[in-house]
Amino acid sequence: MIRHLLSGADLDADTATQILDTAAEMATVAGREVKKLPALRGRTVVNLFYEDSTRTRISFEAAAKRLSADVINFSAKGSSVTKGESLKDTALTLQAMGADAVVVRHPASGAPHRLANWVDGSVVNAGDGTHEHPTQALLDAYTMRARLGRLAGLHVAIVGDVLHSRVARSNVLLLSTLGAKVTLVGPPTLIPVDWAARAGAAPAVTDAGPAAGSHPGTDVCYDLDAVLPGVDVVMMLRVQRERMNDSYFPSAREYARRYGLDGPRMRRLPEHAIVMHPGPMNRGMEITPEVADSPRSTIVEQVANGVSVRMAVLYLLLGGNNR
Ligand code: NCD
């Protein structure tokens, strides 16, 4: 097993599949009256959150507690970070407390990689800037496999603000490792230029974010309606206004008209296709309530699956089997 989980690229097909299979076993615990396993008794998991989070923070906490670990929740607000303490000094404090795993969310891309050099325990990236969010990609893959029975050969459209999305980046990496085909869909200003150029689409003129590299089986399309009839999965992304210091599209109304998933568009999907969203949603912008609350939507399942997947990640990283 790997020591840290920092990127979707840390996972080869065998390791990713082992995590998904272990998550399926962990899911049975959720159905029990006593939702607890003794696997990580005596181990300490620190949740280090420098950025707001609802689902990810709660599900890592639930996952660690279901495995009987001691959990310390640290949020930057109310800590010495507001007095100017550096990430390194915070890391040394965690080290002194004997953290076996540090789950970190940070607004700076790359912060978890730095942290991994300073602590002896395992580091799990719970979202760093616009870079990566590997456990989200794992729970998305788990949800697709649970609903559609396989990952290899699936066609997944990832739609919207790809440029600012760590969820999209980690999904592209993991899904291509697991044999799915990904089409990135959005306005040219919100697709990273290098991805668009490598996929053969005309590159947009934009102050694009970090470079992403090319991935087998990934292409780009600016027309949502053209893509919908041929996909098995459509994953809608939140428009991340907090990361935009410029205007990337004319208006919210215009964005919704071209790239929002509404009822008529959903009905153009094949019968079996599912609709995903990592949350939090801008209802009425990238997705309408009719779609978000429809039986095709896996949004609530994704949250439940997030706990099982994070249990599997913590269990395997902390030596559930071989450490
Ligand atoms: C995502 C995140 O924070 O990266 N949400 C999540 O973890 N469930 C996506 C987002 O903020 O839009």
From TrEMBL:
Binding site for L-aspartate: K83, R166, R238
Subunit structure: Heterododecamer (2C3:3R2) of six catalytic PyrB chains organized as two trimers (C3), and six regulatory PyrI chains organized as three dimers (R2).
GO annotation terms (biological process): 'de novo' pyrimidine nucleobase biosynthetic process; 'de novo' UMP biosynthetic process; amino acid metabolic process
EC number annotated for this UniProt entry: 2.1.3.2
Binding site for carbamoyl phosphate: R55, T56, R105, H133, Q136, G279, P280
Name of the protein in question: Aspartate carbamoyltransferase
Pathway: Pyrimidine metabolism; UMP biosynthesis via de novo pathway; (S)-dihydroorotate from bicarbonate: step 2/3
Organism: Micromonospora matsumotoense
GO cellular component: cytosol
Keyword annotations from UniProtKB, A to Z: Pyrimidine biosynthesis, Transferase
